[in-house]
Amino acid sequence: MFTGIIEQIGRVTHAAEQNGNLTLRIAPAQMWPDLQLGESIACGGTCLTVTGWDDQSFSVDLSKETVSKTADHWQVGRELNLERAMLASTRFGGHIVSGHVDGVGELLEVREEPGAYTMRVRAPRHLARYLTPKGSVTVDGVSLTLVDVGGPAGSRSEWPAEEFTLWLVPHTLEVTTLKHWRAGTRVNLEADQVAKYVERLLALTDAEGGRQKAEGQVEGQA
């Protein structure tokens, strides 16, 4: 589990592809002295397992499934937001993040405002149901607050339901890769965990209620 509070930025120093799978080496700005084999690190919002390391970088493997379902952040020289899995003693400064990417979004525009930057993002249509004004979303591993959201029950009903805005202060840009975002940039998105669990619970509850109703009608006819 992660919080979406980025610890540091890393850079891809090596990428090897085999049968659609990737092996990467990632060099953090400052190597962690207590890294452990098999631990999880969110790299650009994607939870990956440490398979080895030296004093300058660590290695991870990406299956072809992971590569196909995430933004194309895996080239040599690309910078990635890094966060190690949270400890029980860690301040929970962001929100519940699993590092499991739900879809790839596209940045539509970036505007500089007094003391902040606004960014408008288009998510895949299937994620629109999880987007709500002042809710949470993870973008390339960063825990951010949704500001304006399109569609019904959103704050900008004239926009498509899958579009939303983010307001970022200069500090967030400084310590993350978001400072490189431009219109057309593709980003990893993870919807709020709570919303997804509630949706699943309601769907199964409705399905169970329908099954019980159907069984009751059959018994009544018997």
Description of the structure:
The protein has 222 residues and is an alpha+beta fold. It has helices at 64-68, 170-175, 193-221, and strands at 8-18, 21-28, 40-43, 46-53, 58-62, 79-84, 103-113, 116-122, 136-139, 142-149, 163-168, 186-191. The strands form two sheets. The protein has a six-stranded antiparallel barrel. Strands 7-8-11-10-9-12 form a six-stranded antiparallel barrel. It is globular, with a radius of gyration of 20 Å. The protein starts with 7 loop residues before the first strand and ends with a helix.
Topology:
Layout: E1 8-18, E2 21-28, E3 40-43, E4 46-53, E5 58-62, H1 64-68, E6 79-84, E7 103-113, E8 116-122, E9 136-139, E10 142-149, E11 163-168, H2 170-175, E12 186-191, H3 193-221
Antiparallel strand pairs: 1-2, 1-6, 2-5, 3-4, 3-6, 4-5, 7-8, 7-12, 8-11, 9-10, 9-12, 10-11
Mean pLDDT: 93
Q: What does the overall shape look like?
A: globular
Low-pLDDT sequence parts: none
- Helical/strand content category: alpha+beta
Largest sheet: 6 strands, antiparallel, barrel
* Through-space gap between termini: 51 Å
Q: How many strand units?
A: 12
User: What integer value in Å does the Rg equal?
Assistant: 20 Å
Strand order of the largest sheet: 1-2-5-4-3-6
Order of helix and strand elements from N to C terminus? EEEEEHEEEEEEHEH
Strand content: 35-45%
Number of helices: 3
Fraction of helical residues: 10-25%
